[in-house]
Amino acid sequence: MIEPILLFGVPVDFLLFALTLLGVAIFHHKTLQVALTGLAAIVIYKLIFTGFKYGAGINGLGHHMVHEWVTLANLFLLLMGFALLSRHFEDSRVPDEMPALLPDDWKGGVVLLVLVFVLSSFLDNIAAALIGGTVARHVFRSKVHIGYLAAIVAASNAGGSGSVVGDTTTTMMWIAGVSPLAVVEAYIAAVVAMLIFAVPASIQQQRFSPIQKNPPSGLKIDRTRVFIVAAILVAALAANIIANLRFPALLDSVPVLGIAVWAVILLTAGWRAPDWKVMPETFKGTIFLLALVTAASLMPVERLPVASWPTALGLGFISAVFDNIPLTALALKQGGYDWGYLAYAVGFGGSMIWFGSSAGVALSNMYPEAKSVGRWVSQGWPVAVAYVVGFFVMLAVLGWHPDPRV
Length: 406
Prior knowledge:
By secondary structure, the chain is mainly α. It has one domain. It contains 19 helices and two strands. The protein has helices at about 10-25, 30-50, 55-90, 95, 105-120, 125-140, 145-160, 170-175, 180-185, 185-210, 225-245, 255-265, 280-295, 310-320, 325-335, 340-350, 360-365, 375-380, 380-400, and strands at about 5, 10. It has a two-stranded antiparallel sheet with strand order 1-2. A hairpin with a 2-residue loop joins β1 and β2. α3 packs antiparallel against α11, α7 runs antiparallel to α16 (about 340-350) and α15 runs antiparallel to α16. The longest helix is centred in the N-terminal third of the chain and has 35 residues, at about 55-90. It is globular and about 65 Å long. The two termini are about 25 Å apart. The mean pLDDT is about 90. Keywords: Antiport, Ion transport, Membrane, Sodium, Sodium transport, Transmembrane, Transmembrane helix, Transport. One of its GO terms (molecular function) is antiporter activity. It holds the Pfam family CitMHS. This is Citrate transporter. It is found in: Membrane.
């Protein structure tokens, strides 16, 4: 690959990506078109001027996509599959029963966020966010504040940040040889962050649309749909653990998690038909995310600043606009990080913007009004505050202890 062309000291690749993100922020009703246009501009620029990491021209682009296709395929299958899972969960009538289990004031919103946090510690954060969003739609009578949506995404990302089975980035660290105990330290920051953003977000929501005090009468839970939801989640969890422990090389060549989810969806379709009507809109949101992830993977980020706690803190903000998977891969290759900090930063940091994590994109497919960077940032401000405070509490409690072995 030729050295990047600089404009005002900044690689043109980054400027094109920044313009794409700016376009997404301004034209939030045309996000798919903006993302695809930005991706096309970046690809054309690299085809003509700089080439790609694995070579120049079409061959270089082809080799790049060979390295990225498993990640993209997994994201596609998971986002599409978990949209059907959320509808199974909604149609099971379990969310309608939740008002009987949650406190009937702002503390009910906090308890729901805690449930999302716990679910995400052992499930995929996309599934946890969608389950939280489905319950919120029912207990808040379909009027969910954007600040609370940001909190649901933040809870799902925080819950996965300290578990090697809770997030793709922490799973990558586990595969690379990082001890699960080194990653679990991230929960010190994640729990503090949770305590900070959960209360103001829940109070915002209670003022916007109070929680429903009592469930509708005459509810009948569809146990078959509950079983299907559980089967999909167990399949994803089992596929993740078994593949990492027994067949790690398979994860680089086959989208194992996505295939496991869709296998259960298709095998159980005869018992209860999935709600296929959600697919067209979900497809648009999924292609949007894949366009941004692909564009981010094309950026010349082969060298990161020297590993340190300020660098780790900065990576959290970067992960709000860059895909955290390549950032994690680069950090692992570089070495010298305290991995608990990196897990928290790249896992939780993407919550600060709606397209900064796959959980945010999935939830925004369910709530299209959330697809506004300005409203997400202004109404979800507790998430950014919580990220910084959680990081510095962890630093004060543990200190910075880099591990040069990975």
